[in-house]
Amino acid sequence: MFDRPSIIASEILTIAQWVSILYTRAFRGFIIVLPWLLELVLMDLIISFLLPFSYHFPNWVYDASSIVAFTNWNWIQVIFEIFNGGKITISGDVLPEGETAIVIANHVSWTDFYMIQALAIRAGMLGRCRWFAKIELRWVPLLGWGIWGMGMPMVSRNWLKDKKELDRVFAGVVVKKWPQWLISFSEATRYTPKKYEETKTWCKENNRPIPKTPSISTNQRLRNNSAAFA
Questions:
Q1: What is the spatial distance between Cα 213 and Cα 138, in angstroms, rounded to a whole number?
Q2: pLDDT, tens digit (0-9, with 9 covering 90-100), for 196-214
Q3: SS3 state of residue 191
Q4: Nearest to 121, CA basis, from 90, 167, 163, 83
Q5: Where are the domains of the chain?
Q6: Which phi and psi angles does 109 have, rounded to 5°?
Q7: Cα(182)–Cα(69) distance, rounded to whole angstroms?
Q8: Count of CB atoms within 10 A of residue 68's CB?
Q9: Of 214 and 147, which is predicted with more confidence?
């Protein structure tokens, strides 16, 4: 026969242990993340404050917002790699330090941006990252204003509407010579073997270079490949 009181007591003890573990983890997460969240709010407030000055002092605002952004983005990278023990393996070419790049990546999980930030840190470009964002985010208090103030490209995915915005973004790189990583998650074109074969076929038919891997295109690579896209 089963000793029902003992079974109930054991189950209660097990539940209590799980509650204790969950509470400890939740408390640890709260202690680690809360300072970062507060700094994020402060960052958005500072960048929002800088927004009115961007018309008359664009270079100064760009540099200042990049410094402010670096502090917050580096912090969340520390949380991922140091506090939570995240391991990022990097292979391939050594990226040139301080050079402008167009970064195109598949967006398959919430941790994708950690991978890009890890590379940006090594290239000295973390604060210079600018991410393509949906234009609707512009009206989100603090977050949207911060994105807007940093000059991130805000697009609707409609070329006729986005052309002016993209001209503005690339003018910062081409005309003002701002060092920058322009980052785009190609969410609608996630990698599959079938899509890759279709891409190779299209490139061959249109005399375009065949992409081998998702990559970071630096100025030098863009210069080397410019003739192919002319």
A1: 32
A2: 788 788 888 888 887 665 4
A3: coil
A4: 90
A5: 4-185
A6: -160, 170
A7: 15
A8: 22
A9: 147
